[in-house]
Write a structure and sequence with these properties.
By secondary structure, the protein is of the alpha+beta class. Helices cover about 25% and strands about 35% of the residues. The chain contains 2 helices and 5 strands, in the order ββαβββα.
Length: about 100
């Protein structure tokens, strides 16, 4: 007996404010944004264009904001560990100076 393989994609919302793209996970089922990040970034790029020059924030299911960096085609996560969006944004933008 065989069963179809069901894969769940990440469910998220995102906003763009200046050079900051903020991605927020919406659910507790399916893939996390971290585990589906290539698809998530591709979908966002389809809507906003090239992501070069954007600072990307990600809020996980626990409400913690961290950064996502695109480096020559590789996606890298870096810990900000902030629970407040404003503080996460300030720390992220400080890294871009």
């Amino acid at each position: 007996m065989s069963f179809p393989l069901i894969t769940y994609r990440a469910s998220y919302s995102f906003t763009v404010d200046g050079i900051v793209i903020a991605i927020t996970e919406l659910n507790e089922w399916g893939k996390s944004v971290a585990n589906d990040v290539e698809t998530v970034l591709s979908e966002i790029q389809d809507q906003v264009g090239d992501l070069a020059g954007y600072a990307v924030l990600h809020c996980d299911r626990m409400g913690v904001w961290d950064g996502i960096r695109l480096d020559r085609g590789l996606v890298k996560f870096y810990e900000l560990g902030e629970t407040a969006f404003e503080q996460a944004t300030a720390r992220l933008l400080h890294l871009f100076e």
